[in-house]
Amino acid sequence: MINNVVDFGSAELALKRIFRTDKLLVTSFRSHSFSYGVTFLYHEQRYYAKFLKTRKFGRDAIDLLSSEKDAISLVKGFPVGSTEKSVPEVVKVDEDHLVIVTVELEGQRLLEACKSCLSRVTRATTGSIGSSNLENSFRLAGEFLAELQAVPVDFMSFNQRDYLVTVQKRVDSHLKYIFQESGTYLRLFDKKLQSSVNEGRFVPVWSHGDYSVGNILTSDRGISVLDLADLGVRDRSYDIVYFLLQFHRLFSSRVKYKKGGRAKLIQAFIEGSGVDLSALFSCPMTEICLIDLLSLQAYTLKQWERGARFGLTKSMRGFLEYVVIRHEIDRTIGTIKLLLEGKPMSPEAVYGSIAKLG
Ligand SMILES: Nc1ncnc2c1ncn2[C@@H]1O[C@H](COP(=O)(O)OP(=O)(O)O)[C@@H](O)[C@H]1O
Ligand SMILES: [Mg+2]
User: Fold this and answer.
1) How confident is the model at residue 244 (pLDDT cuts 50, 70, 90)?
2) Would you say the C-alpha torsion 135, 136, 139, 140 has a positive or negative sign?
3) Of 226, 227, 231, 250, best ligand 1 pocket probe by most atoms within 8 Å of the beta carbon
4) Among 157, 66, 121, 114, which Cα is nearest to 250's?
5) Measured between alpha carbons, how far is 319 from 2 in angstroms, rounded to an integer?
6) Dihedral angle over CA of 151, 148, 169, 190, nearest 10
7) Ligand 1 atom 27: the closest Cα is on which residue?
């Protein structure tokens, strides 16, 4: 059977089939970019069903479902996260409907929590989180990463060569959009990659892969981390860089935010993760992760050319604000070039720009 879930009704029908019952009440249906999110009630328990959108994944969808399930059970085997609700509990996976059902977790996404707490215009509404609570959630988000990174990598099959080949391929394909003279930069990238590996500065750890404020729920009980399908082994800087980048993308330049709010949250996250930022940012592997992530952002250069300027500048400015203060597209490309040419990022610049964020 094909996954034909597109609305409330078809989701309800699919779930009733899967659970072989009529006594199941669908309470909400939402469309996300890659999935439909359906909450339902069954035997007085609330569940969350994630139906993958077939057209987004094609044949990879089934693999993705099982990776998410495997990732969750892998993480549950270790003391990662402070409570047993730190990651979702899988109840059912159904390949015919491309759905993974988990017990519904309490809480608000850190994404919305940040927006409503830091925005100067929206007044705090009931149920919204206070700023000290938010800071604590960011600290917990950092701690979760520290715990994840403390799991010995041998528990997951890991092949450094494959990893590097994947990164290389991604960067290759994305950098082509940015540089006409990509050949030169790809060679530089190769050299950089090789030297970091040779110097032994590549630190493979467990990595979430999509660690962002959109995938973390916060509540009185702490945080829960969702969306584990990309769990894998990567350099230790990956999730940290990714988290900060995605966090930054949240903030539209058109909205006014409270002064000092963001910097405090970042500090709390960094403290929780226990990383030494200056050590991290003087490591060539971090630069490679940065280039990888920046080129991933720059992938939308095509869109930018077609006029979707806003989306791109917003994402491009992202991480760089933490690293080299304010950049626009040309300067971003310039930064990737500088990184490739071996100009080191100074830790002062990193800290300085965090402080400047206000
Ligand atoms: N177990 C759960 N309990 C409550 N909400 C959930 C649960 N799983 C997912 N969600 C909600 O659905 C959203 C999308 O789920 P996610 O697993 O991140 O899928 P996607 O791959 O589409 O991003 C989350 O951001 C969260 O708000
Ligand atoms: Mg998600």
Assistant:
1) confident
2) negative
3) 226
4) 114
5) 40
6) -70
7) 109
Give the full edge-to-edge strand order of the sheet including 216-219: 108-109, 216-219, 222-225
Instruction: Say yes or no to pLDDT of 46 above 90.
Output: yes
Note residues around ion ligand 2 (Cβ under 5 angstroms).
215, 227
Q: For residue 244, what are its two tokens? A: 């900060």
Distance 254 CA to ligand 1 centre (A): 27
Which residue is associated with the tokens 């080949």?
165
Give the integer Cα–Cα distance in Å for 333 and 321. 14
Question: How high is the pLDDT of residue 317?
Answer: 38
Using the mean position of ligand 2's atoms as its centre, give its distance from the Cα of residue 166 in Å.
22
| 208 has pLDDT over 50 | yes
| Polymer length of the chain | 358
Please state, as a whole number, how many other Cβ atoms lie within 10 Å of the Cβ of residue 219: 16
Q: Which ligand lies nearest the alpha carbon of 28?
A: 1
pLDDT classification of 103: cutoffs 50, 70, 90: very high
Ligand closest to 68 (CA) is 1
pLDDT band at 120 (very low <50, low <70, confident <90, very high): confident
Q: What is the largest CA-CA distance in the chain?
A: 63
- Averaged pLDDT for residues 247-254: 65
Closest protein CA for atom 14 of ligand 1: 37
Ligand 1 pocket residues where CB is under 6 Å: 32, 34-35, 37, 48, 50, 88, 102, 104-105, 109, 214-215, 226-227
Q: 344 near 286, Cβ under 8 Å?
A: no
Lookup: tokens for 158: 């890991």
Distance in Å, CA 33 to ligand 1 centroid: 11
Tell me the one-letter amino acid at 33.
Answer: S
Please, what are the domains in the chain? 8-103 (3.30.200.20), 108-356 (3.90.1200.10)
